[in-house]
Design brief:
This protein is mainly alpha-helical and about 120 residues long. It has helices at about 5-20, 20-25, 30-55, 70-80, 90-100, 105-120.
Length: about 120
Amino acid sequence: MQLVQVRRLTDHASILDHVTNTPRLLHKVKNEDALERYQEQTIRCYDVLEAQLRKSNGETIIPGGYTSADFHYYPWIHLHGKAGLTLDNHPLISKWYYAMSGVKEVKAAYDRIRKASEAAEL
């Protein structure tokens, strides 16, 4: 994986945070222009990830099996719906995302998050 691709993939976290949280939750005045820019940047990051996933036919980010890259990146892709984005134009990301959703450790982590959220609402 080239350094430029690694940098672009790691930039995705901060970009998606802007798409999902900053304009929608933190600002009373909606800035649709900023939201649109962040969504476009996120799609560019998706394009980079899609290209990287081609190396493993959508199995893992780094060919050869799951690594910390897969577990680090999953939560950001998990937010795509909240960000108003779709994976329709990124079939390998979609394949990888749904496979990761079934990984025992990922399921357990999100189950703990759900239970903690429910307990906080009580």
